[in-house]
Design brief:
The two termini are 21 Å apart. α5 crosses α6. The protein contains six helices and eight strands, in the order ββαβαβαβαββαβα. α3 links the parallel β4 and β5. The relative contact order is 0.16. It has a single domain, classed as Protein of unknown function UPF0759 (TIM Barrel), CATH 3.20.20.410.
C-alpha cells in the first residue's frame, strides 16, 4: 500500500502530547472555531508540539453564524455572519488566516452548521464571500452540517474551489489531488475501530497527492495510531 502523502491524526489535541509524533502526523486545531486567538498564542502552541506533527486549523463559525452579544470582536456586531461581504467579516477572515499562518497550518477547515442548507442563496453567499476574500495558499476544506446529499456537497465544493470533508465509511470520496477524510463520533459505535473499517479508510486515502485522515471518534488517538500502523505494514488493529 502506497502511503506517501497521507497524513493521519486527530480532531483536537490529545490530552497527552508526550511522544505525539510517534503516534500521529497531524492535528486539526479547534481553537479558531469561535474567535481565533492572537498569532502569538498560536505560535506558542506550534512551538510546544513536535514539528513532525502538522496542523490544520478550523475557521471561525461567526463568518456564517450571528455573533453573540458581548463577544470581543471589533466593529458592528450585526455585520458578522451570513458570509456577508462586510468589513467585519473580511477582517475576521484575515484574523483566521493570521491564526492559521502562525500555526503553519496545512489546511483550513470551514464547518457550517445545520442552518446552512443547500438553498441556492446560501451557496451564492458563500461563493460571493470567497470571491471577495483573500484565498490562502493552503487548501480550504468544507464540512457542511445541514441536510446535504453527498453529490450536492461534491458539486458545490468543486464549484467553490473547496475540498469536501468526507466520511469514507459512509460516502464516496470525490476525485481530486487533495482529500480530507474526517471520521466523526458516529462513524463507528464501538470503543475502537476494527480492522475492516481501517482498511476501508486506508483504501479511500490512497491515490492522492495529499490526503488527511482525521479522527473525531470516541477513541480518536487509538484509531489514528491503528490506521497509521496498518498503513505502515505493522500489525493490524485489533477488532
Amino acid at each position: 500500500m502506497t502511503t506517501r502523502g497521507i497524513r493521519v491524526g486527530t480532531v483536537g489535541l490529545p490530552r497527552k502530547t508526550r511522544n505525539l509524533a510517534a503516534s500521529i502526523d497531524v492535528v486539526e486545531i479547534t481553537s479558531g472555531r469561535d474567535l481565533p486567538p492572537a498569532p502569538r498564542v498560536a505560535r506558542r502552541l506550534r512551538a510546544a508540539i513536535p514539528q513532525a506533527v502538522g496542523f490544520t486549523a478550523q475557521l471561525s463559525r461567526f463568518l456564517w453564524e450571528a455573533l453573540p452579544a458581548g463577544a470581543p470582536a471589533p466593529g458592528d456586531p450585526s455585520q458578522y455572519g451570513r458570509f456577508a461581504v462586510t468589513d467585519e467579516n473580511l477582517a475576521l477572515w484575515k484574523r483566521c488566516l493570521d491564526h492559521a499562518a502562525a500555526l503553519a497550518a496545512e489546511a483550513l477547515v470551514l464547518l457550517t452548521g445545520a442552518d446552512f442548507t443547500p438553498a441556492a442563496g446560501n451557496v451564492r453567499r458563500l461563493a460571493g464571500f470567497l470571491e471577495a476574500a483573500r484565498r490562502p495558499e493552503v487548501p480550504v476544506v468544507w464540512l457542511p452540517g445541514g441536510p446535504w446529499e453527498p453529490a450536492a456537497v461534491a458539486t458545490a465544493a468543486r464549484n467553490l474551489g473547496l475540498v469536501p470533508a468526507v466520511d469514507p465509511l459512509r460516502d464516496d470520496v470525490p476525485e481530486g489531488p487533495v482529500a480530507y477524510l474526517r471520521l466523526g463520533p458516529f462513524s463507528h459505535l464501538g470503543s475502537r475501530m476494527g480492522t475492516h473499517d481501517l482498511e476501508c479508510i486506508a483504501d479511500a486515502a490512497c491515490g492522492r497527492d495529499l490526503c488527511f485522515c482525521l479522527f473525531a471518534t470516541p477513541r480518536s488517538l487509538d484509531d489514528a495510531r491503528a490506521l497509521r500502523r496498518l498503513m505502515s505494514g505493522g500489525p493490524d488493529a485489533k477488532t
